[in-house]
Amino acid sequence: MAGSKAYRDLFDRDVPVRLQRDTVVAIQEAYRDSRDYCFDRYPEPVAHDLWPHERRAMVETNWQMLASRHTGVIAPFRPNRIGNAFHAQVRVGEMILTTSFVDAPTKLVRSAEFRNSLARSSQMTLPTFPEVPPPMREFLYGLIIHGGDEVDPRVPGFIHVVFPASDCLSYVGRIDLLDRFSDLIAIEPSAPEQPVQDRALPAIKRKRGEMSGT
User: Fold this and answer.
1) What percent of the chain has pLDDT over 70?
2) Which uninterrupted H or E stretch holds 11?
3) CA 121, CA 96: separation in Å to the nearest integer?
4) Whole-model pTM?
């Protein structure tokens, strides 16, 4: 992506490293805890259907809670245009951030008016010549996308910050947060179970004079 560095520089300028790390932690913990919550309480078919909703709730809650602890960060829950759903929105410096689940890092998020509005109002037009600074808007909109690991769905397989174009039909910048904070990958994918080999039981040493069967 031609503009990735420009977007990355603006993101790193406004979003503290600690907040970036907390974002990864919030999403990782939400994946693990939401799956455990659902599958520990409900039959597997019910847990399967419930888990995406519980995961979203925990991602939004964890992220909003951790973000709001940082100085200079505003992290409210905002309603959508018609007021029938809410989402966490983090504003720090000139950045506005939201989160969304997608099946793969190349997938676009589903259409939503609040995301379309944020993208239309915020995204900058990068200049043809890199020495010319890009025009700044009131804010820059970044979308934190995440999705499950193919081997172990308890962990996210990717966490990227992407910057949607003003029409939300493509991404014009991207930052891989899991790659940036690879030390936070604490849960490894489950290894396949190995067959248990039969082992001979040790012989029982009897005391002298002890009769068999007594």
Assistant:
1) 72
2) helix 4-14
3) 11
4) 0.76
